[in-house]
Each structure stands twice: as C-alpha cells, then as structure tokens.
C-alpha cells in the first residue's frame, strides 16, 4: 500500500479498530472512521489522536469516497455504510488482512492467543520488550493490543525494532471472511493461554474452537516457539502436533516454567518462577490474582526464549501497570471502591472475583453484571455463570443487552440466575438498567465495599454514574 491514502474504518471504536486507526496514522495515512455510538476508552484514544469519528453510520461519511475502507468484524450486511461501499465498489479489506499486508511485513510476529488473558499478556510482553530495548534498541517493540496498556497510555505503537507483538483474536475476521483474525498473523512465536468454549454466536461447540486454535498452532514454523498453559487438557490437545518447540507454564512442578510460593501481600503479588525445576527469578507484580501470575509467567517465558535478558523481564513485571478495564479502579468514594473489569465469559468473571477476594479479603464484594458479550447473552453457560457470581457477597444483574437479537430459547435468563444465587444464600437482584442499579445500590453501599462492574461494553456509563451518585449522597449527608 502506498502512503498518504485516505482510509475509512467502519466500526472504528472497537478496540482493535481504534488501535489500527492509530497505526495507520503513524504510517502517514489520513484516517477517518464511523460508529453507531462511541464510548471510552477507545473514543478517548481517537480523540487524543485527532482522528474524526462520525456518528451514527451514514452514506455521507463516505463522501467523497475514501481510497480504502476497513470493515470491522462487528459490521454486517444491512449496515448503511457497508451497503454504500458495495454499491459504489469502493475498495475494502478486513482489519486482519490489512495488518498482515501493511504492518507485519519485515517484523518478527509474536502472537498472544487464547480464550482468556490475551490483552493483559500482550501488554505485559510489550512492556517487557520496551524495558529491554533500553539496553538493546533492536528490541523496541511495535504492538497492537485489544485495550489501552497503562504503561504506554495507548493500545498501539510502531517502532523500528524487530518484534511486532499482537493480540491474536479468535473471533471472525469480517462479514466476507468468517475465519479467525489470528489466522492472518503467521506467528514466529506464540503464547496460548486458555482454550474454552466462547463466542457462541460463531462457534457451534468446543470442538470448533479447538479446531481454530489447532490451525493457529499449525502456522508456527519449525524454528518458532510456543509457550502454552499447562493446566488445561484443551490446550494440551491443541499443541500436541506442533512442529516447533513447545514450553509449558503453570503451577505444576512438571511445567518447564513453574509458579511456586505464590502469595499476595503489601498490595503486590509475589512468586518464585522456576525454569526446569530450578529457581529462575523472584517475580513481583502490582496485580492480584493467580490468573495474572499466569499471564506474567507466559510473557516472561516467551521473552526469555526470544533472547530477552532476565533482568529486563523482572524489572518490567515489577513496574507493569495493568490495562484499562482490567481490574481498573475507577473511583473511591466514601470508602467504596469501584472496579471496572472487561467481563466476557464466566471463567473470566470467576478469576476477577477471586482476585478481588485475595486483594480485599475483609471487604464486602459486589458483582454488578451486564450480560453483554455474545457468550454471556446466551444460556449456554448459565450454570457456570451462577457458580462464578456466587463468589461475591452481593450480585446485581442488568437485563440482557439487546436481548431481542437472541432467540428466546437460547437467551440467558437473568431471573433464573438471580433465583439460583438467592437459593445459595447470595443476595442477588435483577434490575433493568444502569440507572435503576445506581438508584438501588447507592443507599446500600458502605465504606469498605468493593463494587466490581462487569461488562465488555459501555454499560450506559454506569462507571461514571455510580461514583457521581455516591458523591451526591455524601454531599447531602
């Protein structure tokens, strides 16, 4: 692709699309985009880059016609801009296709994939390489992450160094390419975190999910390396026929990279990292939860295997500052801590609540959930969701997001989840929307409470509404 093109992104406020917009701008292109509705953190990122966002979708957003249109994977036939692109024969591509052609060429492709932990692990790996580049400039990383990494203040970077670190999403690529986005990234080295059934809207069952990851593994060359979680049979099955070296990580003493003496104190997580049974490093991390220790270990193992020095790895993990919307403290008002977490799957919810339990053992823990992801909106994991939410002291469920788009027989029944939780002795309620939730729980919140707001979307700005309501309560008192 020649420089200085006008490229328009339909669905620009998706995490990956907004990051791509920034990368294309760095490459010298003129970038515009559109979306039905913009919300943080990606809308804030685009605004800081002075990349215009047109709302809502309209044919006028494509006049005059751009040189190229990138169609987000959330965009389907019937979208007014997509229909105009097809009618006018404006050239178009998918995000993953453009990344392969425009960004990965000439770089070492380091891909982080898996059902859970991709964004955090990718951010950790990018920060490790950033710290290492202070000693070895050739390691300065380019990256594309499905979230805003707080150490960088952005979700993307374009550098002159060899590595390009990218989050490998298993979701489909575009309306015209129903394969996973990660199949376009051709990894030189790969992290595989977890393999579970997810994305029930595009994968018929767990076997279909495993097939996708097996195909990704099959793309890694013989000279490459795979770092894979050692605590799940699904992962073991997916890497069984790899043609390259496979290094396992986890809590098992049989793992090449083993977490030992895991503990949480002084607001930090600590563990001894063993390699081949021998102490390799003492790791400190400013994040709670076993799942984050696993994410950090995976990043450390891949970086070490690619030649990054141990001192840089340890230093980077100790100074890692998390990712926006991953156990992010949004506010503390009158002793009430409000946490924002990107919840998309019952397993992720379970690990989030376990981490908050370990970090706040004396607190009353609230889980406020918007069933918004394509998996959570369906009843396929209704029992597992109940089990995960039962880790909280108080639970509030909102209505299923856009429930009319899910057939009733397949739709999650929040009332059934609430009933099951109450039967277990967990005080739970269902409320229609963010406004109703804020009005209901504000009078009940007490100093010391921790409120985990769980959603993979905007949740009608509850992250701002709840702190504001608490502040008004305090002023009135």
UniProtKB/TrEMBL annotation:
Keyword ATP-binding attached: yes
Gene Ontology terms: biological process: cell division; cell wall organization; peptidoglycan biosynthetic process; regulation of cell shape
Membrane-spanning segments: 7-26
Entry's Gene Ontology molecular function annotations: acid-amino acid ligase activity; ATP binding
Stretches assigned to the Mur ligase central domain: 112-303
Top-rank taxon, per record: Bacteria
Every Mur ligase C-terminal domain range: 325-457
Positions of the Mur ligase N-terminal catalytic domain: 6-101
Alphabetical keyword list: ATP-binding, Cell cycle, Cell division, Cell shape, Cell wall biogenesis/degradation, Ligase, Membrane, Nucleotide-binding, Peptidoglycan synthesis, Transmembrane, Transmembrane helix
Record flagged with keyword Disulfide bond: no
SUPFAM superfamilies listed in its UniProt record: MurCD N-terminal domain, MurD-like peptide ligases, catalytic domain, MurD-like peptide ligases, peptide-binding domain
Matches recorded under Pfam families: Mur_ligase, Mur_ligase_C, Mur_ligase_M
PANTHER family xrefs: UDP-N-ACETYLMURAMATE--L-ALANINE LIGASE-RELATED (PTHR43445), UDP-N-ACETYLMURAMATE--L-ALANYL-GAMMA-D-GLUTAMYL-MESO-2,6-DIAMINOHEPTANDIOATE LIGASE (PTHR43445:SF5)
Protein name: UDP-N-acetylmuramate: L-alanyl-gamma-D-glutamyl-meso-diaminopimelate ligase
Species lineage: Bacteria, Pseudomonadati, Acidobacteriota, Terriglobia, Terriglobales
């Amino acid at each position: 692709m020649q420089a200085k093109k006008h490229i328009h992104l339909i669905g620009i406020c998706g995490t990956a699309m907004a990051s791509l917009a920034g990368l294309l701008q760095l490459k010298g292109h003129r970038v515009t985009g559109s979306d039905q509705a913009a919300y943080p953190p990606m809308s804030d990122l685009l605004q800081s880059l002075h990349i215009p966002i047109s709302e809502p979708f309209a044919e006028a957003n494509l006049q005059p016609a751009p040189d190229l249109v990138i169609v987000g994977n959330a965009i389907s036939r019937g979208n007014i801009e997509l229909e105009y692109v097809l009618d006018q024969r404006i050239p178009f591509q998918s995000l993953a296709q453009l990344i392969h052609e425009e960004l990965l060429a000439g770089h070492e492709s380091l891909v982080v994939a898996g059902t859970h932990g991709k964004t955090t692990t990718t951010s950790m790996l990018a920060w490790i390489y950033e710290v290492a580049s202070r000693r070895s400039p050739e390691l300065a990383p380019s990256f594309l992450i499905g979230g805003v990494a707080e150490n960088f203040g952005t979700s993307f970077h374009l550098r002159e160094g060899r590595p390009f670190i990218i989050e490998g999403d298993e979701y489909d690529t575009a309306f015209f390419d129903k394969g996973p986005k990660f199949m376009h990234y051709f990894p030189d080295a790969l992290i595989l975190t977890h393999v579970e059934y997810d994305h029930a809207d595009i994968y018929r069952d767990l076997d279909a999910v495993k097939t996708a990851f097996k195909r990704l593994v099959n793309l890694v060359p013989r000279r490459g390396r795979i770092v894979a979680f050692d605590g799940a049979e699904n992962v073991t099955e997916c890497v069984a026929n790899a043609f390259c070296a496979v290094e396992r990580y986890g809590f098992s003493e049989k793992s090449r990279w083993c977490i030992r003496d895991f503990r949480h104190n002084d607001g930090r997580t600590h563990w001894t990292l063993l390699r081949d049974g021998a102490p390799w490093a003492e790791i400190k991390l400013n994040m709670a939860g076993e799942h984050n220790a696993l994410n950090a270990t995976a990043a450390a193992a891949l970086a070490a295997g690619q030649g990054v020095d141990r001192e840089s790895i340890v230093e980077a993990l100790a100074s890692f500052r998390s990712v926006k919307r991953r156990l992010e403290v949004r506010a503390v008002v009158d002793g009430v801590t409000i946490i924002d977490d990107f919840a998309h799957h019952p397993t992720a919810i379970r690990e989030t609540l376990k981490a908050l339990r370990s970090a706040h053992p004396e607190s009353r823990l609230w889980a406020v959930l918007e069933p918004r992801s394509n998996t959570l909106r369906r009843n396929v994991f209704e029992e597992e969701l109940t089990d995960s939410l039962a880790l909280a002291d108080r639970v509030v469920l909102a209505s299923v997001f856009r429930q009319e788009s899910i057939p009733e027989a397949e739709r999650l029944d929040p009332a059934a989840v609430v009933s099951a939780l109450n039967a277990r002795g967990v005080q739970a309620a269902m409320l229609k929307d963010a406004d109703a939730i804020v009005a209901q729980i504000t009078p009940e919140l007490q100093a010391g409470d921790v409120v985990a707001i769980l959603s993979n979307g905007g949740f009608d700005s509850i992250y701002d509404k709840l702190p504001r309501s608490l502040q008004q309560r305090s002023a009135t008192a």
